[in-house]
């Protein structure tokens, strides 16, 4: 684990890379970034006597029972299945689990350490990934888009095999999501969660912490389906160059658009419209799609 210990003053001197709905990302030493969670910092500043172990709490039960917890939004992202109970891991434990899973993962860079601000857990260490956001490459020739998306599918298959569920793969730089900085400034947070090397066409997933990615010890079918649905939308937007929002509640127009893409199988058309393709469906579509 590459743990990082900083003071609040140290943090203020680091260059800011970007903002997300659950954290701010800073540049840190060569090939690393650090992500500081908004909720963690807010809570610690309002509770100066908090101890590190105070945020390492497990919750069991259904989501309906968490509505009044101050850190419900911060902790619900990491789940571990134990019989019928859902145990919610504090972010620190999830990052430790991600670090262990990295031994089995070769195509994706998982969080690799914990960040402490003034000796309080506050975020995670990330390996820097570079590339062009995948949504900005939709104008590439189909042949190149197919190579890129095959790399995306291989990375997703490896994550699912190891019970890692990226549930925000469809996120787009054109998203209108905004975050308000402490000074009141509003910033757009939309960005693709897949980066593409423009030379090799290899891909990197990002945002593998926070609410975007869930780690479990056992296979979780609902989470798998959620991750695949996100990938469905990305595939439709990037590979097929179809904006699903243009065909909302209009399946006949969607079918016409798919037929123009030479996708004539009714069952596949239905799965595409419902964003219900599994990984095998997507691999087959990627392989067989023609101009």
Descriptive overview:
By secondary structure, the chain is of the alpha+beta class. It has two domains: 4-127, no CATH class; 132-288, Transferase(Phosphotransferase), domain 1, CATH 1.10.510. It is built from nine helices and 16 strands. The protein has a six-stranded mixed β-sheet with strand order 1-8-9-4-3-2. Strand 2 and strand 3 form a beta hairpin. Helix 5 packs antiparallel against helix 9. The longest helix has 20 residues, at 142-161.
Question: Which SSEs are present, and which pair or pack?
Answer:
Layout: E1 4-6, H1 8-12, E2 16-19, E3 23-28, E4 32-37, H2 38-46, E5 59-60, H3 72-75, E6 79-82, E7 85-88, H4 91-101, E8 113-117, E9 120-127, E10 132-133, H5 142-161, E11 164-166, E12 178-180, E13 186-188, E14 194-196, E15 203-205, E16 213-215, H6 221-238, H7 251-260, H8 266-273, H9 279-288
Main beta sheet strand tally, sense and closure = 6 strands, mixed
**Global outline:** elongated
Return residue spans where pLDDT drops below 50 for at least 5 consecutive residues.
Answer: 40-88
Strands, count = 16
Q: What's the helical proportion of residues?
A: 25-40%
Strand content: 15-25%
CATH topology assignment of the largest domain: Transferase(Phosphotransferase), domain 1
Produce a short descriptive summary.
The chain is α+β, with helices and mostly antiparallel strands.
Provide tags for this entry.
Transferase(Phosphotransferase), domain 1; single chain; 6-stranded mixed sheet; alpha+beta; 2 domains; about 290 residues; 9 helices; about 35% helix; 3-stranded antiparallel sheet
